[in-house]
Hints:
Elements: E1 2-6, H1 7-17, E2 22-25, H2 32-38, E3 45-48, H3 52-64, E4 69-74, H4 75-91, E5 97-103, H5 117-123, E6 127-128, H6 133-150, E7 154-159, H7 160-163, E8 166-170, H8 186-189, H9 193-215, H10 217-220, E9 225-227, E10 233-237, H11 240-249, E11 254-257, E12 260-262, H12 267-274, E13 278-282, H13 288-295, H14 314-322, H15 348-359, E14 362-365, E15 383-384, H16 389-400, E16 408-413, H17 414-431, E17 436-441, H18 470-476, E18 481-485, H19 490-502, E19 507-512, E20 548-551, E21 554-557, H20 567-571
Parallel strand pairs: 2-3, 2-4, 4-5, 5-7, 6-7, 10-11, 10-13, 14-15, 14-16, 16-17, 17-19, 18-19
Antiparallel strand pairs: 1-8, 6-12, 9-11, 20-21
Amino acid sequence: MKQLYLGNEAIARGLWEAGVTFGSSYPGTPSxxxxxxxxxxxxxxxxxxxxxxxxxxxxxxxxxxxxxSFCGMKHVGLNVAADxxxxxxxxxxxxxxxxxxxxxxxxxxxQNEQDSRHYARASKVMMIEPAxxxxxxxxxxxxxxxxxxxxxxxxxxxxxxxxxxxxVCEVSDRENIPLKPYVKDFAKYVMMPATARPRHAFxxxxxxKQIAFCENEAFDIGLNEIQWNDKKIGIITAGxxxxxxxxxxxxxxxxxxxxxxYPLPVKxxxxxxxxxxxxxxxEELDDYxxxxxxxxxxxxxGKSAFSLLGEYxxxxxxxxILGTEPEKIAVEDTVIPNRPPVMCAGCSHRGLxxxxxxIGVMISGDIGCYTLGALAPLSMMDTCICMGASISALHxxxxxxxxxxxxxxxxxxxxxFIHSGITSLIDIAYNQSNSVVIIADNSITGMTGHQHxxxxxxxxxxxxxxxxxxxxxxxxxxxDDVRVVDPNQLAQCEATIRDALSTDKSAVIxxxxxxxxxxxTKHNPPVKVDKEKxxxxxxxxxxxxxxxxxxxxxxxxxxTLCVGCGVCEQLCKFGAIA
Length: 578
């Protein structure tokens, strides 16, 4: 039977067909839907973990117990999970283990363009990369066969275009895989110097076997493949870039498509290149494949012709390689308006940032919806590094110059705080830097699409679960001054922050109001502007609410967007909004 699937949806189907029984992930675009789709299969016990390191460790535990398991994350999440990844490369597995990582060329929803292929080479873990949804499904199933065959975890790499595009998949029944017996094996699973040294030797021998597989059998089963057309141009590529190249060049080029991107074949690449007049390496982000080709003596054209930045396209490849542009489909000229990211109407973070702007503080920021507070007109974020860094960076700033303590705060979301902010808060309490941390608690993981987290009281499947009490947690790690405010109450919010900054001890302020987009959030009726009272002063525009605009020099509120949060009412000195 054939189905039209998103790449992420196809991977979830592949997990089910492969007999996977356990999965643990942390949500991160563009990988989030993999676990959400997988959770719809009753046979797969799926869960959200507090962070990617925990999710990978849980999946490793399940694999050692004999189950086929997976963990999913975006590219920066692999940084967090790297510690267990490098060690499980040594220990190997029992049941198959697949770590799925989604890179984000073009940074559609990320803070960098990290290329995860380097992690495969650094950790010496086999990595495969599909080029469409059908391959997402088939490669996922193949991954478990390879994992168990070579006694290794496997990495499956996606990019945004593969994760979020659709193509036709051939679906099959589930293969019910029984738990493999667990056998106590100190030398295999307990990593310390005496046991790790021989396991390193095992890893090096494993790579030799995998290279032999990539040279021969991978081509027999279609994981790697060569398509001969015109041999004047040869293209070495993988993933979405294969699709771009095929659409741009058609039969004007021959293709070596690599489904396994670590380890890479040697002789197969050399033989392919020897039969082509000019060979291009087409790969987004880093010159990963190009470096390998040059290291094995293959002369290729790579990043000297193509960019290290962003996504590629059919048009760009045709221009560079053929000097032409592909034929375009005629469409009516339409001006498409820009849609810059903005906090939603009624967003609880808006009032918080407005209060902080009135106080005039430096903000050490973090990853989430509230990162949008960096944009005009609020413009209230000074730094944003990575998950959890807001608290740690504030601690370092205040240690370096204690005078900053009275005019600096950290802002972090509830899910991000659970992810990696707790240990940073412990650092503040333990090393006493007199820092004020604001937890923007909107009762959900907002940026990635409303996933539950350990503080919401529900698990991935919507079932009741113990909820972390943020107030008690903060006090338990050594923060005595913990306060809760409603960020939509501007005067209260401002006064609370000012008071916390005026003391000589660390404090946590929990700015708590549910996300305006939650189905359970009850809204007030939309507010209206009294044109007679409105002076056109634009004070209401200072919060950057998308429901508010100016028309005929008067404020105008779009009733289809307004949720009656009341923040703009508090800004109007003339009582024109009610």
